[in-house]
Amino acid sequence: MATEDIRTYDVIVIGAGPVGENVADRTAAAGLSTVVVESELVGGECSYWACEPSKALLRPVVLRADAAHIPGIDPAVRNPLDTEAVLAHRDRMSADWNDDGQVEWLKSAGIELLRGHGRLAGEREVSVETPDGETVLLRARHAVAVCTGSSAALPPLPGIDEVRPWTSREATAARTVPRRLAIVGAGVVGVEMATAWQGLGSRVTMLVREDGLLPRMEPFAGELVTERLREAGADVRFGVSVTAVRRERDGAADEVRITLADGDEVVVDEVLFATGRAPRSADVGLEAVGLEPGEWLATDDSLTVTDVPGNWLYAVGDVNRRALFTHQGKYQARIAGAVIVARSRGERPATGRWAPHSATADGEAVPGVVFTDPEIATVGLTAAEAEREGRDVEVVDYELGHLAGSLQYRPDYRGRARILVDRKREVVVGATFAGPGVGELLYSATVAIAGEVPVERLWHAVPAFPTISEVWLRLLETRRDA
């Protein structure tokens, strides 16, 4: 390898999604020379195939559902959505899958970009195969951060390769609305895409192995989403398993036939498998540092990979499986960046719960919003998780439809709120809200949990009237009067 093909930096980041961008931003801002290696689009999954395009598809659908229940507006929204306009808006939100703007941001932040596929090549070394076939060897003085994220995991079904199934990428980037769409899975991707495509005119059939939607959340969340999907015309089936799939072409017809365990068959135009995620770690050179390719990368709370000595390798974002959310990955990136900077200066990172160099929130205050009709917002523990952990908690529920603020939102408002209060410490350790507009309640709940705000202090946080945030007062009153 020629000398000019070897480049040295303080920090090498593999992956230029939001997580990698944030790690690089923190280290570059501290004066460390930083390079980001990216094989696809700068901005990553979130910008082009996940958060941004999915919400662009969902917002018109959910807004229309809310408006259809508001007196004076409801007649104006009876017509079908303008799908061409919605898809054009989705394209704009995804920057038409052009990353020029994000590349320009990297330059403005003093971060170098190297296009190509990066693989670990040894301690503090990354080999990059560039699009023109050249190989560049990068060497890091201080740190390498693997920020490659995750990808859709497809089940090992007979015929699945020939079917050309949708994953989350195809579901958010589709150019036309399928007449019939089957969705296999009960999680966030499944319910969000069911909401979006049913609202855009597709006949959606959900094939769910479990006995409810959103099985990792409070049961009432999945029940409300199921109710609304069925009201919108979706066919939601529980307790069913897919055993085989095949695509058949007969002249102009192009159909997918899905065989179920009970022998029934579902015929659709497209099928989306929303059956989980896998780490993008199969081809990043893990074997060069003694790790197993294709596995999740285990880290401590400083985001340092625990099975590689020397405190130089970091895994940040989805690839470490700590919390598969863009916002949580960006939080980890801020922590990892601070740790890398501290170690580069010969400083020992601060450790301990809620320390500046510890990603404590990954285990205690992970927020998430499901942008369905209705919205679901969660942070911290569910009642089932608290029970499994042996936590002594009090479960407090309140019907959101009883609030004056929710009735202003829509007169037939249906929704529910739940908080879990740790009886010993008298602090909130979990919250779930289900109903239109509840996503904006989530940050207050996250602050209450991360800040360990005593319940008696929450009494003095006065919500404005009439807003949905008044639910906090009602939850505390319900607990007091129980």
TrEMBL record:
Pyridine nucleotide-disulphide oxidoreductase dimerisation domain ranges (all copies): 366-472
The cofactor required is: FAD
Class in the EC hierarchy, top level: oxidoreductase
Q: Which UniProt keywords apply?
A: FAD, Flavoprotein, NAD, Oxidoreductase
Question: What's one GO MF term for it?
Answer: oxidoreductase activity
User: Pfam families of this UniProt entry?
Assistant: Pyr_redox_2, Pyr_redox_dim
Every copy of the FAD/NAD(P)-binding domain together lies at 9-323
The protein's Enzyme Commission number: 1.-.-.-
Instruction: Write down the PANTHER family for this protein, in alphabetical order.
Output: DIHYDROLIPOYL DEHYDROGENASE, MITOCHONDRIAL, DISULFIDE OXIDOREDUCTASE
Instruction: Give the family, as the similarity comment puts it.
Output: Belongs to the class-I pyridine nucleotide-disulfide oxidoreductase family.
Q: What is this protein called?
A: NAD(P)/FAD-dependent oxidoreductase
| Species the sequence originates in | Streptomyces violaceorubidus
